[in-house]
Amino acid sequence: MRICLFLMLAITFPVFGFAQDANPQNTNQNARQTMAVKVPSWAEGQNYDASAHVYFPDYYTFYDPARGGYLYWDNNNFSFSPNVPSFLEKVDLSKSRIKILKGLSLDLHPELNYPYYMKLYPADGNGNLNVPVPIPGNPAGH
User: Contact 84/71 with Cβ under 8 angstroms?
Assistant: First the structure.
């Protein structure tokens, strides 16, 4: 009798598990993976396909393809803009150094770990930047 009950339970549970996985309400992650993401114009020369976050180390700015915009330091916190931030409007981002943050889920917010990325990928500091760059953690912002 116990064996029969065990077999019935063993057969029934995988069916219930499959039914939960097939629930169309749980497709948020799948929808994000299959949605078409627009590749920014600066990415053409950078070998970037909009499948990962990008960090512009010389500008302390992130590009987030999931949110479709830029995260940059402004007024003592990170701000989001779907457009290139105003301090980068005259910068040719296609020639800028970038770090593609592969392995970081698009569901995560890279700006939350900016001290790590600032250490891992320091700004060039060669003096060729012709724009005032807001620097995270700098009280003056530049």
Answer: no
State the burial class of residue 121 (Cβ atoms within 10 Å of its Cβ: 0-12, 13-18, 19+): middle
- Rounded CA Rg of the chain: 22
In sequence order, what are the beta bridge partners of 63?
54, 70
Q: Which two tokens stand for residue 97?
A: 């150094």
Say which residues have a Cβ less than 8 Å from residue 58's Cβ, sequence separation at least 6.
Answer: 96, 97, 123, 124, 129, 133
**33-71 pLDDT, tens digit each:** 445 567 898 988 778 889 999 999 999 999 999 999 999
Number of Cβ within 10 Å of residue 72's Cβ equals 24
| Residue 31 φ/ψ, nearest 5 degrees | -65, -40
pTM value surpassing 0.85? no
Q: How many CB atoms lie within 10 A of CB 77?
A: 8
**Which stretches within the chain are classed as H helix?**
2-21, 28-34, 114-120
pLDDT in tens, 61-97: 999 999 999 999 998 899 999 999 999 998 889 988 9
